[in-house]
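Hi V.,

You were right to ask for the full record rather than a summary. Here it is.
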Amino acid sequence: MDTPVGLAHFWSQGDFLTHAIAILLLLLSVSSWALIAGKAAGHWRAGRSHDAAITAFWSANSLPEAVAALKVADRSGIFAQLALAGAYAAQAHDANRGIGAGVSVSEAVTRALRSQIVKSQAGIEHGLTFLASVGSTAPFIGLLGTVWGIYHALVSLAGATQVVLDKVAGPVGEALIMTAAGLFVAIPAVLAYNAFTRGNRIVLAQLDGFAHDLHAYLTTGARTRGNLHSIETAQRAAN
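Predicted structure:
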């Protein structure tokens, strides 16, 4: 803006603290939007591939084929990793000679599925703490800039016999801009946090349901035991 009271004018009138706050809010905004875009794409992939991935798994003729089909159809990767963990635990149970040899195949599969769900949950919840932190702290960072701008306005009026608009317009405008900037950073972060939290609950519910079905299939004896080498190959490829 070329007007005397434009953004460039406010920036030129600001000091080190004002510039530092503005840069910090800009970095928080860019980081938040980058994280929002990445997680939105991940949720979109998970939602689009869930039904097709589960159908592909249960339509296969054997366990290795089911794992391979799920790996291809699951664009998010979380369901394929869960199937790999459960299948490998079931297939490796008979060959286990360690301290886990005394547990049943049901317990071995349960342990593997639970461990994989925890890993998947940590992955899909990654970044939510940052969004929550930005949403809760950005308004206060902007408020700090607001207080500092009002302080400048009061300093400019000290000793003056009459109020001159030019002396207070810059600091007051700076204060208002900082308030707006803090809200501009915080509001998208809060909305995204709430949306992703709800989306994560849906994904985790789908993952938990698939884990129960998978556990029942792998522990009833009705499964085709397949080839352990095929499962291991699929697991290494997924990793």
